[in-house]
Amino acid sequence: MFDVEPIIADHKDVIHDVVFDYYGRRMATCSSDQTVKIWDEDGQGKWNVTSSWKAHSGSIWRVSWAHPEFGQVVATCSFDRTASVWEEVIGDKVSATNTPTRRWVRRTTLVDSRTSVTDVEFAPKYLGLLLATASADGIIRIYEAPDIMNLSQWPVQHEISNKLPLSCLSWNTSTYMVTQLLAAGSDEAATPTGKVFLFAYSENSRKCVKIDTVNDITDPVTDVAFAPNAGRTFHMLAVASKDLYIVNLRGVTDATDISKLDIQTIKFSEHNCPVWRVCWNMLATMLISTGDDGCVRLWRMNYNRQWRCAAVLKAEGSGPTYEPAPPTPTLATTASATAKFYKKGTIGNQVPWH
After folding, report:
1. What are the residues facing 75 on neighbouring strands?
2. Partners of residue 301 on adjacent β-strands
3. Which partner from 27, 141, 143, 177 sits 20 to 30 angstroms from 66, CA to CA?
4. Cβ neighbours of residue 259 under 8 Å, at least 6 residues apart?
5. Rounded CA gap, 178 and 133, in Å?
6. pTM
7. Strand pairing category for 26-31 and 182-185
């Protein structure tokens, strides 16, 4: 079902992030070697580097693609306390037979943070061209490009302060229940309090405010990811920490007719080590997690609506292993388990079989 094929990335140091674009045909990687690489998939399914450049003067932690409606735009963040927005521009053809030259141009550098910028992510398309950054100083900054044709201007729209340093963030792509819902995690280890925070836009105060904290997760958090909404009446948030967590967020109304979030946390310890990254597929039917065990684990929901590990992809090119799945009940097995038989009578004068 799954094939493991290594890609020689040719980065000179640790790769911190790998992100696909909206269509899954392009890929961006960033590393501690201070470079960003853009990969394109050819007709044979092979990935080739089409652009590579030095983007920052420190380790690059994260990279994010904007929606293709806004063009080929990526954002990066770094230990050098900045975040940058890059746009791909197409030059003239060198000759009639050659393809046009492409290069990535820095459109702006965001220098508001006084500490390392640990995460950066573009907002869902329906919100416009918004960009959120999380910093080690505990501040989430939301920028907006008022003119998508001029990506050099990114004024700050919101600043959300938090007492703990932040390591990651994720936008919720759904408009159900809460608008502009944002989750952030902290990798601070000294304070035994909740490490996942939920923020939303408040119409009363006209700004983004913290609305809740996931108190069940007290270990340092390295990644958070909202699941795409596919018609559900609740939100799912995957959290990478000492273990893997799936947080279900439902809207409820109390006795005073005030709406609030009902938070349910499910813990998975199959990694037996710290989990580093989590991501969902397009329909939120599969969750992928990676950890210190060098394995990629694929999770699926079974017929009982319980998440189970479906496969484990191991490093060093070894093949995938599949977790045994519980048998799905059929109509015959269900009937045999519930059917009852009663004696109605006796048939006499039986004719022997010939």
Report:
1. 64, 85
2. 307
3. 177
4. 251, 252, 253
5. 20
6. 0.84
7. unpaired
